[in-house]
Amino acid sequence: MEEKKTTKCGGGFLAFVLGFLLSVVAGWVVFPGLLYSELDQPIQFSHKIHTEDQGLTCDSCHFFREDGSYQGMPTNEQCTGCHSDVIGQTPAEAKYVQEYVQKNKEVPWRNYQYQPDNVLFSHKAHEPFECTECHLDVAKADKAPKYYENKLSGYSKQTMKMWQCERCHAENGVSNACHVCHK
Amino acid sequence: MGLDRRAFIKFVVGGAAGTLFTPIPWKLADDASIWSQNWSWIPRLKYGALTADATYSKLCPAGCAVKVKKVAGIAYGVEGNSANELSKGGVCPLCATGSQMLRSPSRVAGPMKKDGDKFKPISWDEAEALLADKLKGLKGQDGKVAAISGDLSGTANEVLSGFLAGLGSKSYYYMPTDQTAMAKAWNGVMGGSGQIGYDLEEADLILCIGADIMDAFGPVVRNQKAFAAKRPMEGDKTLTLVYAGPVRNRTAAVADKWVAVRPDGAAAFAMGLVNLLVRSGKSASLGGFSDFADLAAKFGPEAVAKLSGVNPEALKDVAKALLVAKNPVIVVGSESGQGAGVALSAAGVTLNAMLGSLNVLPEFPKAVASAPDRAGLLAKDLVGWLAAVDAGKAPAPEVLFVYEANPAYSLPQAGNMAKTLRKAGMLVSFSTFMDETAAMADLVLPAPHPFERLDDAQSPYGLGKATYALATAVVAPEKDCKGTPDFILGLSGKLGVDLGFGAFEDVLKAKVEAIGADWDALAGGAVHVSDKKGSTQASLDAGAMSKALAGIKGEGLVLIAQAHLNIGTGKLATPPLNLPTIRETELYGKDVFVQMCAATAKSLGLSEGAKVKLAAGGADISARVNLSEGVMPGVVAAPLGLGRTAWDPYTKGKGDNVCKILAVSAEPGTGLSVWAGSAVSVAKM
Shortest CB distance from A16 goes to which of B14, B37, B47? Predict the structure, then answer.
């Protein structure tokens, strides 16, 4: 009887450990892959062509407006300064002109750092920081990075969370009062 | 080791425990909370460049110079254009709601044709073909095609009236206002030219007889700014404001003096002032003044007291103030901005002429050569014409165009007028919103919202100088609408009516060139102001005035309708944004309130809150009583703009439409339809 009991206890423990380990592996390895959809940008935009070949700088397209607000993703108004018609050889450019410029539609760019409306983020206030401290470094990328969309929330995987904002504010001696970001 | 039940449970428990050491529960809980921010019905902000584009909003009768605030090209707010020297950055309560009204649920989505009791969407080409077919057979027959316009300042009227003239019809009418009453007096009976103006900016005394300049008369924002400029919070006051009318309205509330005058006795009050000024040696260089002065002599202070309820001493005090002032200006009109007679207007003109304040603005040159003269059209009597159609004395039109107007709701005896409008073979409404007239129309051809269209405003009535402003499309159309003048130009081309232009923009460019203004500056929000003055030559018709004045009884219970811009106008129902500004003493629940003083209420056996029926002109409305000592005895005051039967769920069915009981009568001697201060009966329900 005693021997049987011991055997059962050991088998049960192993089952527990196995379940534990499997779920940990699933949680850390499998779950992230299931949670996010891997998406491409509507247009395979090459930062490399624009920066290295054409000599544009970041603020040629991503600039502050006169009132201090930030342009963020450029719109057709900026892009058609050069691309009102096809001027290069790439299929991406041809697609952009045909599907967006000629149809007078804006490109629905996927925003890696989209913040909801209840967050007021001022780029002007964060101007001293390097862009890459928050954003992906795409300046020399020939292809737009993959966009990982959270299937549940709809946000990008890279979207900064509130704790990250708070930590940075704390490290830099900036107030973390609600009204600083939530107007 | 086999997997028995016990081991399986431990496996599951182990799995569950292990999950706690993974991101799964924490990440899912976090994402679920974020997911709740993105439910589809939660409105999203638009991000983009913040801009403010200048234009001229014509949501209110006189229009406001505004800047439409936009983000990423989408309008979200309105502010006054401080570059405009007249409105100085002010904006009225209607134009302030312009961006919200772009997305009003009552906007007409596209051209529609009545199909049974409902509307059927049609294309603009179908609408044009349908109308061209109908109008082809009516060409050259006067009275078969008619039009009603509620836009009194736009060049669009030249296109529409020129089109009607090309079809051989003279039946072009403007909605009745203080301007049309004055045009009937000045341009019609007195034979003057140009438009009467009021130089409030230069005045040191403003006497308003009936005209509620702070809420209903003319360019209200400019009136307020002209007043404020001479009445600083600190420093000397260089303007005196006197209000003579039956109700302590928004003008009387800021006036230095309120003289209570019965609305039906306003002309007698003005004649009493003419008489006192004549006695003080004043004269006017108007033809027939001598006979007019003799007529005024019959209006001594005691006679005026009997007809208007004004104490003789109060009348004398006002006359004295006018004589002492250096630049007095008399502004006449009705409390509601409509329904006044020629007698009051002519007396007002005479008073200004006697005091050296008669101000005539020249008409700007026409762009459409074949269009009839504006002044002549303004002097026509729409209500009189509709009454004649109703009585069978004039033929009902086969096609009736209604542009920027809502006659089914806002004309006096509205119920009767709506019935008469139905006699038209085809009623065509060019309305931005589904108003009461559009709802009963056979064809609704939506005009763009004022922020979506090219338009203009020439000398809105009430200004002291001839002015011209341009309205440009500052936002893309939200609906399938088309500029009415452009539609008419297309239609005229199909019918072989040559108006000399193919597009309305070309009409306006020709207008601007004829005026000598700068298109680019106007498009940028500037206003062209002319210092030219019109001729003050005109003649008084003492005979006609004598008959008109003889009709004043000065007794019985009379009704005055009060126009409040925040509540809306005939052609624009209360914007949802303004509903909270309606006082509980104007509307409570679904009951409209009428105001009367305690003495009037006592004589009628009424008390505060009593439910009453008001009847006049063969119609009645129900209301509740609010006791207010701001209303003189013998007068019942009721707010206009309520009791909508169309529009949106926010405004529909609230209160009753006072226009239904504004009883129309023909002014003796001039025949003009009048209803300011009409008799009313009040009975407890």
Answer: B14
ipTM above 0.85, yes or no: no
Is A28 in CB contact (< 8 Å) with chain B?
A: yes
The answer to whether B66 and B98 are in contact (CB under 8 A) is: yes
Nearest residue of chain A to residue B39 (CA atoms): A153
pTM for this predicted structure? 0.88
For B45, which DSSP code? -
- CA–CA dist B224, B218 (Å, integer): 11
Give CA–CA dist B364/B508, Å, rounded.
Answer: 12
Per DSSP, B402 falls in state E
Residue B18 has its nearest CB partner, among A24, A67, A117, at A24
Q: What ranges in B441-482 are assigned the alpha helix state H?
A: none
Q: Report yes or no: B429 and B148 within 8 Å, Cβ to Cβ.
A: no
Round to whole Å and give the CA distance between B361 and B350.
16
Which of A24, A71, A152 minimises the CB distance to B32?
A152
Q: Are B192 and B538 in contact (CB under 8 A)?
A: yes
- A13 neighbourhood in chain B, CB within 8 Å: 10
* Mutation to test the A interface, candidates B24, B40, B47, most A Cβ within 10 Å: B24
At B650 the three-state DSSP class reads coil
At position B89, the amino acid (one-letter code) is G
Count CB neighbours of A23 within 10 A: 24
Beta bridge partners of residue B119, listed in sequence order:
B114
Write out B1-21 in H/E/C secondary structure: CCCCHHHHHHHHHHHHHHHCC
**Tens digit of each residue's pLDDT, chain A (183 residues):** 444 444 455 567 899 999 999 999 999 999 988 999 999 999 999 999 999 989 999 999 999 998 889 999 999 999 999 999 999 999 999 999 999 999 999 999 999 999 988 899 999 999 999 999 999 999 889 999 999 999 999 899 999 999 999 999 999 999 999 999 998
Q: Which of A7, A9, A16 to mutate to test the interface with B (most CBs of B within 10 A)?
A: A16
> Which of B346, B340, B335, B409 is CA-nearest to residue B635?
B335
B625, β-bridge pairs: B594
Strand ranges for chain A from DSSP E: 36-39, 147-150
Q: Where are the alpha helices (DSSP H) in B147-195?
A: 156-166, 178-183
Rounded CA gap, B418 and B432, in Å? 19
How far apart CA B254 and CA B662 sit, in angstroms, is: 28
